[in-house]
Predict the 3D structure of the following.
Amino acid sequence: MFRKMDISTITWRFVFPDTRDDLLVSETGRLSVSKVVPVHNIPANLERVRDSVKKRNRWGWWSIEHFDTFFSTILKFGTLDNSVKEDAWRAVVLGVEQHTETLARIFSNERLDSQDKLAHLNALQMEVYILVELYQCFEEEGKSSHQIVTTKKGKGKKNKEDASSWSSSERQEGLHALRQLLDLNLALLWDPPVVHETFVEQVANCCYKLLENPEVVKCKKTLEFIFHVLGVLIKRYNHCLGACMKIVQLLQQHESLSSPFASLLLVCVRDYDIKTVVAQVIREIAQIEPGELARDTNATRNYCNFLLELGSTCGPVVLSAISSLLPHLDGDSYTMRNCVLSIIGDLIGGVLSEEGNEEKGTRETLFDRLELHIHDQNAFVRSKSIQILTKLIEQRCVPIPRQPDLVEKVVGSIQDRSSNVRKNALVFITTYLGCNPYSDKLSLESLKEKLKEEGEKLAALKEELSQHAANSTQDTEDSEPPPADVAMETEDAMETDPETARKMEMIQKQDLIVQYLRDCVTFTEQMHRVIVLVSQLLASKSASDVLESVDFLVSAYEFGLKASELGIRKMLVLVFNPDQNVKEAVVNAYIRLYIKPISGKKSSPETVAKNLMGMTYGSTVGELMSLKELVKLLIEKEHVSPRAIKVLLDLLVDKPEGTQPHELSAATIILSMVASVDHNLVVQNMNLLITAGFTGDLELAKNTCLLLQQGVPAKKQDAKDFTRLEETHRLVATISDTLLEKFDTPGLDWIGFSNEAVKALYGLCEVPDTILTDILNKLLRKTFPPSGGDLLDNVDNCTPTVNPLAGLHMYRLLSLLGQVALSTLVHIDTRVLEELKHRSAVRQQIEESKREKKLQRRGNRTLNDSGVDAAEEELGLQGATADDAEVEHVRQVLEREIVTGQGYLARFAPLLKHICSSPQLYPCHRIQNAAVLALCKFMLVSSSLCEDNIQLLFTLLEKSTDEKTRCNIMILLHDLIIRFPNLLVNWTGKIYARLSDQSVKVRSTTIRVLTNLILNDMVKVKGNISELAGCLEDEDPKIRSLTKLFFAELSKKSNAIYNVMADIISHLSDPETGRDKEQFQRIMKYLFEFIDKDKQAESLVEKLCHRFRATRSDRQWHDLSFCLSLLSYSERSLKKLLENIACYHDKLADEEVYSNFLLIAEKARKTVKTEDLLNDFETKLRFCHEKGGGDGTAGTDEILSQMKELIIKPPPVPTTKQTRGRARRKKKESSSEEEEEEVKEESMAKPKRPVRRGKRKPPVSSEESDDDLELPNIENNSVSSGEDSDDFETSVKGAGRAGRRKPAPPAARKTAAAATGRRGRR
């Protein structure tokens, strides 16, 4: 069905319908579809249309003649074949192109009358309508088919049969035809010559619909066609306002359109010179209410993404409209604030930093707004502002005069509570240091010296200029005074005097140099202050803080900032950090500093060796341990080559001329760290090390002994091939001679050397006890002059006047005795025990092989299962019994044959006890200290000796006047508690008492010891924990910090702080022994931060309420009510507080107590949703306060009886199902948290049915239970004082293995051994 075309008969107009059905309704003066073409006729009609278009018949009238066919195609689109749809599309596109050519020819050569205009206008609008509708049909079909395919076959898979025939190329053909059409002056078809708005909307809406399709957005070429169509509409068809509103509307709904719309506006500005549309869109977004932006976060994010891309591409245009966005910096949406700040950063770094830009005032204003948000209330905004400033620093767009103040503001953010802000602040400081405009070497001392020199030069130049001016003035005075006008000319001549001009020019240049150096010094001093803050962040729990701090410190070290050396040393401990990223960053930092410091190229072996040696200078024991781990990691990564190790070894052996003693010691220390990875370094170079290490320098000899200790293989497989040294080895004689030669020389670290020498002998030699006995005998002969008797047997009769032991020899001898006892303990408990076990295993293997051979000789090759099991059980029993016997044997040896009984060291025990118990006879603190240390080490060996002398030890701890002695006792008490916990369980109160010691060192040591013991469950927390809590208010900040660290670690144990909270409150609020009010409140505020579970708060509420009845003063009321106000209240805890109102109702008359309870009610309103409960609580509080606060005549019974009227009716009794549900929930809650015994005792539990119990086992006595404990290895350092060394080191490795457990009964051993044997066999 098609119409014959006659232009003269066209009196109707085509009007774009609101819906397709509108065209089916006949209306005068408007085109309507008379009849819908059946589906089976559409292909034939389309064939005729295609032929007509191909033949260029009737030039533009195909749309009029065949409109019914195309409209029917649109209506029946879903039922047509793909080939028919494609034919319709090609015919329409081809027809539009031909009509475009016709119109172009007509507009250029002919004049149209009104009838022709109407005909072409109708044809044009009908073509556009058909094209737009077909676009919509294809898009809807593609969308539906995509959904079907995704549902059936999974995301990303396409079914060729079901997929739409629509393709990107076909989309582009239609858009290209539309653009060619719109390029014509189509307004000539309208009268007046203005294109109707509905025509523009049809084309524009088609483009916007296409943009809503994600597949279209992904195709850049299609987007270009769409952008140009819309650009033409905006440029020539007055679509600017409509486009702006549509863009804002679609941005709100579609996240994927942010980037396309920004590109669209860029096309408008670049290709069509339409700048107003950009400003108009920005104003439309800026007019959105801040509250709406805060609510609709998705739309706000879309707006921000659009604005950010627009700001980066159309900077100059955005700059003109930035004033409309600035009010959003004060809005509620932090996302929009971040967006505006980013745009400001792009403008400053782009448009406002270009050469020739004159808008300096605008740049300063934007800088001010950017800096203002460094302290924004939102952490994301603070981070974003610092990120933007970092980018500007990299681009060098920050004016130098602004930089010092800007850096000060950002430095304050290093201590921000947000880790992200801290991270970005550190990145900014690191970037600023790398991009600083001053120098690449910032040595403060050299800069100050240079500033002083240049300042003197400037002063000299000024002095020369003044002298020159004075001479000129003198010459003028000698002559007759000229007239006034002549005098002025003379002054001008002086100013233009070449010499004066030259000097003034030199002064100006020198002034610039001085100012530059002054700025350098200011900047360097500023960086030094920053380094101190950044070094503190190395201990942060946030990995980002640590990583950025490491990066900054490395950069500061590379720039020559001397203060960074402290931070570089602090970094060493981070090699033990459990976070692998932190550990890797630290290792890479040291590689960057010491291995590859020059542009990433690896340094020479000599440089690497020198750098490693330099890291040991001035290092503490902890830093050396960290350095040892670092060297191990560097060797594993092959950054320390064998050539570098050889350089160190050659330096030690050859000792080149000019080598300093400290360099030799450093080389020895590094070699010992290397040998800890490969012990063959020591084994293969043993003689060289002995020759080079024992040359008279005692420090070098000590480090050599430390190096030789690494010759003992750490791995068991390596230990099989290790041969220990005989008594006649050269090393034994060398160490013995050195000990004896230096024994008389004061001022040396003889004790440090002797400790390491003893360890080396015990580790390397076959019979170390015999060697040390011989050495001790020689030293005894030096210490005790021959007097015809054994002085050790008559120590009680010695007096200071005749006793020669009160000197240097006695001090050193006592120290050596303690180290020998300690090393003997380690030697027996590790090496001897392992050797005994090894021999037992060998014997067992021999017996087993003999048994197998015996069975083979008998010919009994097939044993029944019971026989095999019996054999296995017997063998297993033998192995288990042998192990127990060896452990018991070692325990008995340590107990009876080392420091007690007939052991050689046992002879010295009375001497040590005598010196310790007779301070009036031995007033020298050094001898007292050495004797106490030695006695404690003796006590570590034997429990009987420990039990006999523990009273003496605690007496010295309490009464000794030397703080170092008390510190050493405290450290060794830590070792004793770990080794013999049951012996010291009743003495822990004495340890807690040292928390009130007058010495800060003693208090600090006590806190460290208690922290280690409590966190390792060696000491119970209850009882005296309140004394530790009181240390939170110690006068020393270091002690306060240690105490806070202890409670922070204790809080990681489930319910640990909750279990002791009631005792802490009780003791600290005691009017006689507690703390003052302000201290108590500060302590409680800190501790209550760890009460974070509702069940804990509920139990504490009940406990504290009951404690009101036991109070004796108003102060206790105030403290308890204050503690209650610190808790977070749930509905259950508030009910518990209300249920126990009888405990504290009489205290509510006190104003402070009442104010605390009002604070509780105020806090509860934020978390409790039951309004009736809150009102009931507040009503009863007011009632009790008013009744109790009157004349005081109202008694407890009277008030409680009056309160009954205020009680809210209880809720209805729950049904059986509800009860069961609550019971299940209660059971689940109780199983998820650990409950303290006190909570169980205080709660009113229902009586339970009696449970049958078996025969109870007898309790284990405290004397025997010590043997059943699994004791950990002990390795601690004790501190002492002395002439030779300020540090005494106690190292007990593996102590406590012997004597750990009592042998099990035979039956139990047999059962366990049998099970072990079976498992081993299988």
